[in-house]
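Lecture notes, unit on binding sites. The following record was shown on slide 14. It pairs a sequence with nicotinamide-adenine-dinucleotide.
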Amino acid sequence: MTSAQRGQPRFERLLVTGGAGFIGSCFARDVLARRDGTHITVLDKMTYAGNPANLAPITSDPEQAARFRLVVGDIADPAVVAPLVAQADAVINFAAESHVDRSILDPEAFLRTDVLGVHVLLEACRVEQTRAAAGHRERSPRFLQVSTDEVYGSVETGESREDDRLEPRSPYSAAKAAGELLVNSYVVTYGLDAVLTRGSNTYGPYQHPEKLIPLFLTNAIGDQQLPLYGDGLQRRDWLYVADHAGAIGHVLEHGVTGQAYNVGGGNERTNREIVTLLLDRLGKPWSLVRQVEDRPGHDRRYAMSSSKLAALGWQNKVTFEAGLAATIDWFAANDAWWRPIKSGEWETYYSRQYGARLAGSSKASQ
Ligand code: NAD
Ligand code: TYD
């Protein structure tokens, strides 16, 4: 019998992989702040995207810190993963190389983490499933794979549903789709208890400044140019980070084994609309915006139906207006968090990604 069939499982010991990144750290902060006795181990490789400062609200609170542990290591390393999965009631895999532009520059790291890493986690869960069957632990761990709407590819019209074909178009989304297919294969072949979430474009405090909203916010605060790809009319569905993390927790508790759940924001906007909102709240001029060479293979639009998740009982709590205002104000007030990130490795990345683009850019019409 799977844990979902047994009713609503309560997971006391969570292994949160990639929990020092943007969404995983929000999940860890929010779960531990409930003070309900849940313990979290974060396993994170601390790549350029992993940041201990994202976990400071936990480590600076003695009660939460007592229920928290950070292990620095790679999800693709079985020797690191096996003992941690052995101690976990559930594994929530946020760990990934997550940025499309970096996947276009250097795809290999995406295959290692987003595909092989998922395989290593699944294998460790399979071992624990065997141990549970032999009576060496109460039940096998539940596995939740955090995936993305990008696996559906560009959606010109309508909304993606969970049983639509996966048509990824970037190395990032192809690697995430491959990770999903592996998860599904372990459910079908080994009867593993696993669920999937496909979140839409997420925004909020602590997001790495490589992504659109924090990049444009932090550049605009410093009166630097804002590199808008192509015509800027690409459309994304924006989801506030605490809602994304909350939906993942909800699927962990209530999701049916083997099922995928779309997590949309219900806030579709063009990139131009987003830039206008950011500049208006910061009181910065549109003249900062530069029209630059487009991203190769740029997906024009993502849009999903979240009705399956709604039927499971989840509703987002944060409106787009409130979430965006909170995000803008957080970045304006927390330059001590983002300024160190925009140095060192960042400078090399920034000049590879934007140097020639900005040199060949033109003024963006408003
Ligand atoms: P992020 O890049 O901010 O964080 C990723 C974290 O994973 C970092 O802390 C990094 O150090 C860690 N990591 C990378 N490789 C690792 C490895 N091999 N072993 C252990 N840790 C490793 O990413 P995010 O935006 O927080 O995204 C989290 C997850 O959500 C990803 O799986 C991503 O595909 C998915 N997702 C993100 C969005 C979005 O808009 N950001 C939307 C939908 C889905
Ligand atoms: P991004 O935050 O990279 O998320 P994703 O590609 O996963 O949707 O980009 C969001 C949108 O913003 C996407 O259409 C690409 C665009 N974009 C720019 O126009 N300029 C930029 O410098 C970046 C990073 C993104």
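Take-home: The pocket of nicotinamide-adenine-dinucleotide (ligand 1) is lined by residues 17-18, 20-24, 43-47, 49-50, 74-76, 94-98, 113, 117, 146, 148, 176, 199, 201-202, 208 (CB under 6 Å).
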